[in-house]
Specification:
about 10% strand, three-stranded antiparallel β-sheet, four-stranded mixed β-sheet, about 40% helix, Glutaredoxin, Glutathione S-transferase Yfyf (Class Pi), Chain A, domain 2, globular
């Protein structure tokens, strides 16, 4: 059986994003089971995979349950040693693990003031003193990793690692709330916003459109700071170029128009996630 990842909402669940990236970004096969925070306590929605009580939780093909994201990173690295979850260099690997563990247990002021919300971007946000302390520590860690090990690519240790998956929601918070950081940290945040996997995750949240009002903050809104997607919209009727959905291979029943061309998908979610960010999806981009 395929590994099954249990997640919360795409827009708000920062820990779910980390767990999903640990699989998606490293090319591992898995399926998704989504719960919604609107349906009550998470633990009550996960009774079928006890002792898990939080998201993300992974049920492996043989039935093992992993219910902590740090444990998930280490277990996936053990099971898939060639996937590249941790840097190969021992010194870099030690730092990556330490940074990931610190993220797992720290930065509470930032989390409290700026919950992840990938459908909103704010301006004029004044960080609290605790958030400023968190940001200073985050910048110090990012700078040390990038300067010591990041020359081979845009990520903390050059190539994408589990550390980047863990800091992706931190980058989303800095971007979404317009928090003040220096040039190096700003470039690292921009790398996350442009990452196709991150964009796919965000697009799925837009497609589902679930709104959890307790995550809203009373600040002036502004445009999302990431790359602007190519324009597309849902279409009620027309003749698609493709007969089958680029994701499932089943007959196309739901239509989208993009730049004068019509494409078909097997259901509304496949269409709407593509409308949200068409070129983030390799299977659709191949049709272009």
């Amino acid at each position: 059986m395929e590994d099954r990842l249990f997640i919360g909402d795409y827009t708000y669940s920062s820990w779910s994003l980390r767990g999903w990236l640990l699989l998606e970004r490293f090319g591992l096969p898995f399926s998704v089971r989504r719960i919604t925070f609107l349906d009550g306590p998470v633990a009550e929605q996960l009774t079928e995979i006890a002792p898990a009580r939080t998201v993300p939780s992974l049920v492996t093909g043989e039935g093992a349950v992993i219910w902590d994201s740090l444990a998930l990173a280490e277990e996936l690295a053990s099971r898939h040693p060639d996937a590249g979850h941790w840097p190969a260099d021992p010194s870099a690997r030690a730092m990556a693990r330490s940074m990931t563990a610190e993220m797992h247990s720290s930065f509470m002021a930032l989390r409290e003031q700026c919950p992840m919300n990938l459908q909103a971007a704010y301006q004029g946000v004044e960080p609290s003193e605790g958030t400023r302390v968190d940001l200073a520590r985050i910048e110090a860690l990012w700078t040390r990793a990038r300067e010591a090990y990041g020359s081979a690519g845009p990520w903390l240790f050059g190539a994408y690692s589990a550390a980047d998956a863990f800091y992706a929601p931190v980058a989303a918070r800095i971007a979404g709330y317009g928090l003040p950081v220096g040039a190096l940290a700003g470039a690292y945040v921009a790398a996350h916003l442009a990452d196709p996997a991150f964009r796919r995750w965000r697009a799925m949240g837009i497609a589902l459109g679930e709104h959890l009002p307790w995550y809203d903050r009373d600040h002036p809104r502004t445009d999302w700071p990431g790359p602007a997607p190519r324009m597309a919209h849902a279409l009620e009727s027309g003749t698609p170029e493709n007969e089958t959905c680029p994701y499932s291979g089943t007959p196309a029943t739901h239509l989208m128009e993009m730049e004068g061309r019509v494409f078909g998908f097997c259901n509304a979610f496949c269409r709407d996630k593509t409308v949200a960010d068409p070129t983030a999806w390799p299977a659709f981009a191949a049709l272009l």
